């Protein structure tokens, strides 16, 4: 079996399926998506051994995680799920050689109403499967981050999906969800959205290079100050643009200037390093305005949210990203994701 196992927000399976279909067609890949609304995952099946490389996780907007599917096991006997699983893994990887084929094991379940009750099974089964894999020479004695990772996803007690992942090219968190905790001083829960965006959309080198103390930023529509607070914690000097009030402690750092102005009309007097924006507005209007910031050279890097309609969300996403790119009128590196802390929206990172 060749395919992708992709996790997503429950309810967005049709949008991820549409995205996978379009991206596969653009890449000349013949395949089809299998999805049911509310399940929290999508399968994309295709006769292509390099599917993960041709449809990489970083490029998928609605996928929290994307791993290479190699087996689907149905009607598993609850008295012995391990034996058929070992047989499927050996069939996919061949007889173990000097080195085991996998460096780590993750046993997961979809983040959905049906999947969450399987968390206990996933935890206990992982504890049983791990020594069985090591005994057969299929799993390293300790986690080896340079070796492929084995994923076992239970979608029911008798139904499991097996997949492999390149740790360097997939999300480094189970289910693709970074475990973030809201800081007691955060002005709002929206702070988690920017924190997750910086973790998911920037790589390690970009976080080191692009988030240095003393850099300058603007937060459009800043109130009550969640995103401004995150930037200030990185040492950036922030112009917080909003007619509404900020939480008083956001200003205590001395790095924040609150300017009472309309985020869609305000423009900086000199170029800034960063612009961030989480305003509730029509996505096409936000995309156009963000493009104008890059076109006019007002910032070099940006993170912004696009609030999506209830239907045809992938189509709207494509239109808005194309509008943003066309308005900017210059080469940009663009990454977009529907993050765990997003709801009816996607988050976009762009850098000139």
In brief, what are we looking at here?
By secondary structure, this protein is α/β, with parallel strands linked by helices. It has helices at residues 13-26, 51-54, 82-93, 119-135, 190-201, 204-210, 226-233, 283-295, 313-328; strands spanning 3-7, 31-35, 41-46, 65-73, 104-108, 149-156, 159-165, 216-220, 237-241, 256-259, 272-277, 299-307, 333-337, 345-351. It folds into two domains: 3-176, THUMP fold, CATH 3.30.2300; 190-351, Rossmann fold.
Low-confidence stretches: none
> How is the biggest beta sheet arranged?
7 strands, mixed
CATH topology of the largest domain: THUMP fold
The gross shape turns out to be: elongated
What's the pLDDT, averaged over the residues? 95
Radius of gyration: 22 Å
Number of strands: 14
Q: Describe the strand arrangement of the main beta sheet, using strand numbers.
A: 2-3-1-4-7-6-5
The helix fraction, in percent, is: 25-40%
For the record, give the distance between the C-alpha atoms at the N and C termini, rounded to a whole number.
40 Å
Per CATH, the class of the largest domain reads: Alpha Beta
Q: Compute the number of helices.
A: 9
Label the structural class: alpha/beta
Tally of individual domains: 2
């Amino acid at each position: 079996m060749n395919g992708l196992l992709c996790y997503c927000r429950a309810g967005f399976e049709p949008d991820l399926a549409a995205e996978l279909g379009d991206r596969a067609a653009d890449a000349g890949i013949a395949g089809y998506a299998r999805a049911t609304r509310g399940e929290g995952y999508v399968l994309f099946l295709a006769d292509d051994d390099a599917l993960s490389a041709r449809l990489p996780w970083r490029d998928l907007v609605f996928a929290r995680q994307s791993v290479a599917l190699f087996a689907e096991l149905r009607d598993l006997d609850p008295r012995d799920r391990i034996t058929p699983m070992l047989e499927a893994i050996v069939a996919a990887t061949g007889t173990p050689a000097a080195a085991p084929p996998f460096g780590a094991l993750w046993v997961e379940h979809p983040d959905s109403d049906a999947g969450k009750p399987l968390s206990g099974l996933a935890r206990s089964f992982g504890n049983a499967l791990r020594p069985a894999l090591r005994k057969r020479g299929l799993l390293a004695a300790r986690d080896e981050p340079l070796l492929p990772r084995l994923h076992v996803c239970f979608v029911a007690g008798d139904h499991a999906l097996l997949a492999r992942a390149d740790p360097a090219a997939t999300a480094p968190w189970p289910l693709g969800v970074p475990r973030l905790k809201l800081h007691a001083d955060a002005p709002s829960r929206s702070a988690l959205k920017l924190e997750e965006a910086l973790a998911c959309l920037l790589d390690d080198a970009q976080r080191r290079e692009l988030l240095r103390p003393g850099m300058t930023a603007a937060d459009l529509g800043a109130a009550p100050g969640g995103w401004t607070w995150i930037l200030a914690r990185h040492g950036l000097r922030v112009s917080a643009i909003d007619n509404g009030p900020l939480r008083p402690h956001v200003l205590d750092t001395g790095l924040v200037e609150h300017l009472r102005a309309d985020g869609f009309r305000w423009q900086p007097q000199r170029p800034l390093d960063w612009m961030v924006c989480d305003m509730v507005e029509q996505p096409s209007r936000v995309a156009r305005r963000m493009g104008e910031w890059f076109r006019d050279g007002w910032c070099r890097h940006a993170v912004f949210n696009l609030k999506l309609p209830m239907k045809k969300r992938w189509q709207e996403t494509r239109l808005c990203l194309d509008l943003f790119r066309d308005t900017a009128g210059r080469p940009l590196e663009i990454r977009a994701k529907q993050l765990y802390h997003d709801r009816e929206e996607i988050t976009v990172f762009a850098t000139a």
